[in-house]
Amino acid sequence: MLKSLNQYLLVNYPLLWNTRFFNVLLFAIIGHITFFIIGQISVHSIRDFYDSDDYTELFESAVVGLYSTLVIVLFFIIWLIYYLRNNPFKSFYPVTKTYLVKEFFTVLFISLITITLFNSYEYGRHLKKLKISTNFDPIKESHIINQAHCFLPLDKFNFESAAHCDSIYRDIEVPDYIPNDSCFEGVYSSTMDYETTEATPVEEYPEIAPSIERPDFYSYLNYCSKSHSIDLDSNINSAIYTNNAHRWLKNKQKDSIEISLVAYQKLLNQYQIRNQFKPKTLTNWCFETPDHKVLNDLTSLSYYDELFPTYQNYGEFSYVNSVVNEVYDNRKESFLSIFNWELYFYFSLSITIILIMFRITRLKPWLIASIGMGVWAILFAILSNFIKDNTLLYVYLVGWIILFSMSFYMIKNKSKKILSATFLIWSIYGFFALVLIIFKIIEYNTKEVKMCVNRLWKIITPEHPIHSWIINNKDTINVINITSCIIFIVFVIIPLAYKWQSNPNE
């Protein structure tokens, strides 16, 4: 069947025959279906949500990733044997610029559908997780977790007096060094390097030490809700959990506390999180002393803890938050969000450009340009150690303009064919980073500039709105960069390469 199809394509659609398009398409369909099924099979139960950070799960993903890479490499080796076997452009067949553009997009599509096999594995896992967690409500469950944590002595430090919401000691961190001065006379810009004053060890400031000492007193009344599970509902203030806990403790509402702990235990069982504790016992712990001191604690164990069965009050509590968060995040994801499109497009575009430039130009300039790119990379790495600020970005920008201008001039004037082809290949390789560098230069030059006046910062130049836009729209910038590369290749590089090929040899 494929043989007759190839014969038909050879006569009627030589480009599809030359690129073995339908052979590749068949391989891609089989490969994606296979890895999708592997992804579906790899998720067995809800435990796979929170065991995903364990070595077993990481090893499984690594193995699948390795196999997908080996399959892709093997495919490209076989495909290149057939693809590079016949080159109508170099054989002086009647090939047009339109044909070269079509070949570029065909190779780009082929590389894109073949390097994304692992994404099908990830998407298979995603759909299986959606099916398993259909009846779960992560928003409601996050509130259950946050309320129950007020009565779960997993970490006594969460119940010390310094952890109280109104405590002056709350969230104080002792710095290793305290700077002598945060404002010095001169101009500061985030685009400029500057020297700070020498930092001084904390030991030289003994008056600071008493202010960071914390008393050793643990009480359920000191707990201050930190929303241990992510805040899935922004309309709910995390303080509501603390207020409920204080009211129940002060009014001795044991039933309310026990109901909260029972709901928490049901949540653990629903997610197949192993535990062994009695909500009534934990409720009584809260009232063992009149001031509700924390005298007992729960033991949080992991899946692989060998002593797991020997404890009376234990649980895999470290998994609770992560599983609820992952269920919520998994529902927000889609095929496109799982699809690492930036990485795939950049990689596919790189492969396509390398192959197309090899097809269009000759072997000698292609080798010189490829080796030269490595030399350029080493040179810029060395220069980065000596050139500070964003000067190197301007060097790159000016250097690319010079290379492209020389290539354009030499091709138009039919001179030095090998050198002009080398410059042309360098131009397209260098264009990959050109748009990103332009945006980086704009970002550097639109930041806020401040001056230290009388120990106070004074804004000289406010931040330009485009600076914030660049910071917050990295994906859009990548789309602009990829689109610019494709347009540059189609409307500039291919016509120039076509002109270069028609020039007389030296």
Structural features, described:
The protein has a domain at 138-332. The protein is built from 19 helices and eight strands. The chain has helices at 2-12, 14-18, 21-42, 47-50, 55-83, 97-114, 117-132, 138-148, 239-250, 254-270, 279-285, 320-332, 335-338, 341-360, 363-383, 391-412, 417-445, 465-472, 474-502; strands spanning 177-179, 186-189, 199-201, 275-276, 299-300, 314-315, 449-453, 456-461. Strands 2-7-8 form a three-stranded antiparallel beta sheet, with no helix packed on it. A hairpin with a 2-residue loop joins strand 7 (449-453) and strand 8 (456-461). Helix 3 runs parallel beside helix 6, helix 8 crosses helix 10 (254-270) and helix 17 packs across helix 18. The protein is elongated, with a radius of gyration of 32 Å.
Helix/strand order: HHHHHHHHEEEHHEHEEHHHHHHEEHH
The Cα radius of gyration reads 32 Å
Distance between the termini: 47 Å
Low-confidence stretches: 172-181, 190-215
How much beta, percentage-wise?
Answer: 5-15%
Major beta sheet, strand line-up: 2-7-8
Kindly state the percentage of residues in helix.
55-70%
Instruction: Give the overall silhouette.
Output: elongated
Topology, number of strands: 8
Derived structural class: mainly alpha
User: Taking all residues together, what is the mean pLDDT?
Assistant: 82
Number of DSSP helical runs: 19
Quick one: biggest sheet? 3 strands, antiparallel
